[in-house]
Amino acid sequence: MPLKLPFTAIVSGDCFSRWVLVMSEVSTKPYLLRAIYEWCTDNGYTPHIAVMVDGRARVPMQFVKNGEIVLNISFDATSGLKMDNDFITFSARFGGISRDISVPIDNVIAIYARENGQGMAFEAPVPAGEGRDADASATSAVVSPPSLVSVPNAEKTDVSSDTSPKDDPEPPKKGGRPVLTRIK
Prior knowledge:
The chain is mostly beta strands. The chain has a domain at 29-125: SspB-like (SH3 type barrels), CATH 2.30.30.220. The chain contains two helices and nine strands, in the order ββαβββββββα. The N and C termini lie far apart (63 Å). Mean pLDDT is 76; it is low at 132-142 and 156-161.
């Protein structure tokens, strides 16, 4: 029976040459997700994850908006939560119906505390067929880094535009985050 080790041995030259050990590196993302989850629960916060939904994610599709879903993964909202290095799995109720949820770690784009928004965001996964082409010409192409673009300030409006208050369907909302009031 062959021994399975967490590294790959590479032989250079003939079989009497020196062995070079290359560790198979595991992503830090699952460890960071577990750490933020633990921080949230230790401080009495409600941990939520934002997930990009694709064919590998098992989530209730009626709650998916723009290819994303936000899931409450607190102890009170889930049953059997398991956060391993490849998937986050648990059972939760959606509209009173218990569902088994399975989310690939790669699809998690953020974990944060609902109460204060503190947490961590991750790179969104690249959809299949985009950017991960095995073609040598695609891999050798130079990819420019993302850049920031200034967004016009809401206070700086064009005075010469023909928009009137009648054209705006809703007045701008005041205040910060929405607040949920529990009525007993």
